[in-house]
């Protein structure tokens, strides 16, 4: 799964008002007469659901105190909070005032009265399925006093945040449901929209990214990993206390903290609670804590013992000759030192020889040569490779990149069995071979014309043997299933969120499962490793399909629960990469090697994995 495209919120694809206007132009709705509500307070605007009861209406004389300003980008504005709250915990007492590309001429602590139009803004567009932000647009205001004290921030901690994440509307929208902030975390956050909140001494569970954001948990005891993150172990528990931290402070005078998972954002971090399309509810800091403690060191797996063959999988994240040499060197160091120079490596996201340039190039020899050269320079073996060039622009990924899976192998320790006939469109088939099993082509691709692989990488199958021992053969299937692009987010207004991409991955899993079944039908003791970025969780329908019938064992389930992860997304430590084995490899030794995902400085967004087998 490629890195999430984090970036600053830009203005502005869809608002309720714009959607209504479009529908009116199409003759789909009758627009009600605009109302003008005088003497309105912010909690009247926010209401007790996710949608303002005054959306699309003009309001005037709305009082509040300026608590924070956003002075960068094209979504500038300021937050105001009413220092005289009502007694309803469901109604937020704060509001964002949108000023577009214009920096607002107000100061924190100003008391103001506001006029403007209430709108519901959907970050990323309404079709993205996210929640909306209630805000004031086209606003004018009067400053009635300066230097007013700010309302005390609401402390977010384990006692304040409910253990249940969101109400279940059976996949429908929760927008119209009354907020229950004491029952659901998403309702609590919505009831605090725009208000000043704080966290104190919060564990970092998602590392600082390139856009100056990180993730913390406000519940230090809930579902922690062995190295300090929070584990995403089921759809039922997305870790409700995860909170994204951004900053409203000038970066030149207040550099954003660079933090790894396992450290702590020490002291108090406070600011208004915002919502965006790259992570949902975000504490936009006006005061930032400091990084405390040290993250665990990157891991190193053990070397193979006599009689063992080591197989690894590594998503190298859009690798091409255009990639800086420093990344090749770091990947090489990881393979040689941290992964102890595996005998076979299944690589994912190997791009063609000119990367994202879309000119019909599909070969990846230059990419793989640059990587293997870097490995030798790092003291590693003289790896050789096998792969099949895809059809141009048929396998998804970055446009023009033609990403594919590929094998590296060490010819000093294992032999690759080359069997001609494999190409981009010809399916590989298992065949009987003197009481054993072999392949119709090696390398070969599994069912490449099947619709399940549309715009997705096709699995690559290779036949290997221990060096000089052709009878000690084993098979490796390298995979990169389709991504989660287009799925509704955990913080969607639709609950439970739809996972539309899951259907294709499940179909892909069925094809790989069927291939392994066919191979085992030829030889019940055939030793098969299925490895790669499957873009899904160990508890997902795709993985249940892949392991159906006891054909394969997902090795991650054999680890202690707190170690079952190799990828960090939105503060959740989770499983996307897998190594699975056929029954003949029941004594395999498996390890997720944590050296990337938990760190702000990473060679890839995925942690590699290693498996030792005895063919």
TrEMBL record:
Q: Would I find rRNA processing among this entry's keywords?
A: no
Keywords, A to Z, come to: Endonuclease, Hydrolase, Nuclease, Signal
Query: Which first-to-last residue range defines the signal peptide?
Result: 1-37
Gene3D superfamilies this protein is in?
A: Endonuclease/exonuclease/phosphatase (3.60.10.10)
Please report the stretch or stretches of sequence annotated as the Endonuclease/exonuclease/phosphatase domain: 312-606
Q: Molecular function (GO) terms listed?
A: endonuclease activity
Q: Enumerate the Pfam families for this protein.
A: Exo_endo_phos
UniProt xrefs under PANTHER family: ENDONUCLEASE/EXONUCLEASE/PHOSPHATASE FAMILY PROTEIN (AFU_ORTHOLOGUE AFUA_3G09210), ENDONUCLEASE_EXONUCLEASE_PHOSPHATASE FAMILY PROTEIN (AFU_ORTHOLOGUE AFUA_3G09210)
Protein's name in the database: Endonuclease/exonuclease/phosphatase family protein
């Amino acid at each position: 799964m490629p890195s999430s495209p984090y970036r600053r919120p830009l203005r502005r694809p869809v608002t309720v008002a714009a959607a209504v206007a479009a529908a009116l132009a199409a003759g789909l709705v009758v627009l009600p007469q605009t109302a003008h509500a005088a003497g309105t307070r912010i909690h009247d605007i926010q209401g007790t659901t996710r949608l303002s009861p005054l959306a699309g209406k003009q309001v005037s004389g709305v009082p509040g105190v300026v608590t924070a300003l956003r002075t960068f980008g094209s979504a500038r504005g300021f937050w105001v909070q009413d220092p005289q709250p009502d007694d309803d915990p469901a109604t937020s007492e704060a509001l964002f005032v949108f000023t577009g590309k214009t920096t607002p001429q107000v100061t924190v602590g100003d008391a103001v009265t506001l006029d403007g139009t209430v709108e519901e803004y959907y970050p990323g567009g309404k079709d993205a399925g996210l929640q909306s932000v209630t805000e004031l647009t086209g606003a004018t205001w009067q400053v009635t006093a300066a230097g007013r004290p700010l309302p005390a921030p609401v402390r977010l901690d384990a006692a304040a945040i409910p253990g249940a994440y969101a109400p279940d509307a059976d996949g429908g929208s929760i927008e119209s449901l009354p907020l229950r902030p004491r029952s659901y975390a998403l309702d609590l956050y919505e009831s605090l929209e725009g208000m000043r909140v704080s966290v104190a001494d919060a564990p970092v569970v998602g590392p600082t990214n390139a856009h100056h954001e990180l993730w913390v948990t406000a519940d230090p005891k809930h579902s922690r990993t062995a190295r300090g993150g929070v584990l995403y172990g089921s759809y039922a528990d997305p870790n409700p206390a995860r909170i994204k931290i951004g900053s409203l402070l000038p970066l030149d005078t207040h550099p954003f903290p660079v933090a790894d998972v396992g450290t702590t954002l020490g002291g108090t971090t406070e600011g208004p609670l915002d919502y965006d399309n790259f992570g949902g509810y975000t504490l936009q800091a006006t005061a930032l804590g400091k990084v405390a403690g040290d993250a665990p060191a990157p891991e190193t797996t053990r070397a193979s013992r006599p009689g063992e063959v080591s197989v690894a999988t590594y998503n190298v994240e859009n690798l091409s000759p255009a990639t800086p040499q420093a990344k090749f060197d770091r990947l090489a160091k990881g393979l040689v030192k941290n992964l102890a120079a595996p005998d076979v490596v299944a690589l994912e996201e190997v791009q063609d020889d000119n990367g994202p340039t879309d000119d019909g190039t599909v070969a990846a020899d230059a990419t793989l040569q640059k990587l293997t050269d870097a490995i030798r320079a790092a003291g590693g073996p003289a790896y050789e490779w096998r792969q099949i060039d895809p059809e141009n622009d048929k396998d998804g990924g970055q446009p023009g990149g033609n990403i594919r899976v590929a094998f590296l192998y060490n010819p000093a320790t294992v032999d690759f069995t080359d069997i001609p006939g494999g190409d981009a469109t010809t399916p590989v088939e298992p065949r009987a071979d003197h009481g054993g099993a072999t392949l119709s082509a090696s390398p070969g691709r599994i069912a490449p014309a099947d619709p399940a692989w549309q715009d997705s990488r096709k699995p690559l199958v290779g036949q290997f043997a221990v060096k000089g021992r052709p009878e000690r053969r084993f098979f490796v299937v390298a995979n990169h299933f389709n991504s989660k692009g287009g799925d509704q987010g955990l913080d969607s207004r639709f609950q439970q969120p739809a996972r539309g991409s899951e259907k294709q991955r499940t179909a892909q899993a069925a094809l790989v499962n069927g291939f392994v079944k066919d191979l085992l039908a030829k030889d019940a003791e055939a030793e098969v490793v299925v490895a790669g970025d499957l873009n899904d969780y160990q508890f997902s329908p795709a993985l249940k399909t892949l392991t159906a019938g006891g054909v394969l064992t997902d090795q991650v389930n054999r680890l202690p629960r707190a170690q079952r992860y190799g990828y960090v997304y939105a503060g959740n430590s989770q499983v996307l990469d897998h190594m699975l084995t056929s029954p003949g490899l029941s004594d395999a030794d498996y390890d997720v090697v944590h050296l990337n995902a938990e760190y702000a400085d990473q060679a890839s967004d995925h942690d590699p994995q290693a498996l030792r087998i005895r063919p």
